[in-house]
Write a structure and sequence with these properties.
With 176 residues, this protein is of the alpha+beta class. Helices cover 39% and strands 14% of the residues. It has four helices and four strands; from the N terminus they run βαββααβα. β2 and β3 form a beta hairpin. It comes from Sediminibacterium roseum.
Length: 176
Amino acid sequence: MSELRKANYDGIFFITLTVVSWVDVFTRSNYCEEIIRNIKFCQQHKGLELYAYVIMSNHMHWIAGQRDGKLNLLLRDFKSYSAKQLLSMIYNSPYESRRDWMKIVFQYNAKYQKQNAENMFWQKTNHPVDCYSPKVMMQKINYVHENPVRAGLVKNAGDWWYSSANERSPIEVLPF
């Protein structure tokens, strides 16, 4: 991937992490809770500085930085670990009615990727956008928070549980 499309310097970025083929994985709360555990771990142990987030059914947005300017490495590790955890949960759950179909999709997407021997959970790119000014930062935060509203899932951004717009959000974010 081009160095221009990586979050590999000190800054705050708008990041999108998307499940391959836009598979609606995060319609199940146990998968969302696993992502939340992973995000919290990165906050506590990997220097993740999270300013806003939303978890949608097949993707998530973050406004984030990393205290050492290595957000790209944090994202690599986050995606690798969370993919392994989520794939294990999906493949080993007797209650996952979409398991066989999802397995086909994840294996198909890995087929042509060098890094993914058997399964590919996340799309390769994160589409980082530098939030180089307060105006850009606020525009991206509003975009993140309004995502569930634009999707028709809630009327008010603060009603979406898996979002920093919700005052009772399960993840703490830094003030901007």
